[in-house]
Amino acid sequence: MSLFDELYMAYSIKNAGYKLKCQSRIMDIFHLLIRETDFAGKPFSPKIEKVLGFMAEHRNVSHSVEELSRIAGLSPSHFRSLFKQTTGLSVNDYQIRSRLDQAKELLIGSDCNVTEAALAAGFTDIYYFSRLFKKKRA
């Protein structure tokens, strides 16, 4: 409600720069709405968001559910359930998709060959990577 109050006050008083302040408050309100529920109807979870940030920083490494659930401060079973509810994917599928995306970015945006991209994305078996890449159509 404080964002709405700030928006109302800025618009009512109309000090210098009020249009910019109003636009900023509207964007803040949109940001909060998007964080709460994305357009696919998936719920927002700060604990899962924290884990997703960790996974993004270390996406070329596979993480166990136990390790990720400790980071989130949840039991492994509750973590699995909340992760799937939030992302729409299992932890393993999410990690594979993230690593495939990283390899795809390397293949498109650099001079890496397939082997180099696969290794950089954390795949140690090039044949496994190739099968996954074709299967998932990254």
Automatic annotation (TrEMBL):
Transmembrane segments: none annotated. InterPro entries: Homeodomain-like_sf, HTH_AraC. SMART domains: HTH_ARAC. SUPFAM superfamilies: Homeodomain-like. GO terms for molecular function: DNA-binding transcription factor activity; sequence-specific DNA binding. It holds the Pfam family HTH_18. Residues 49-138 form the HTH araC/xylS-type domain. The keyword Amino-acid biosynthesis does not apply. Keywords: DNA-binding, Transcription, Transcription regulation. This is Helix-turn-helix transcriptional regulator. It comes from Paenibacillus hemerocallicola.
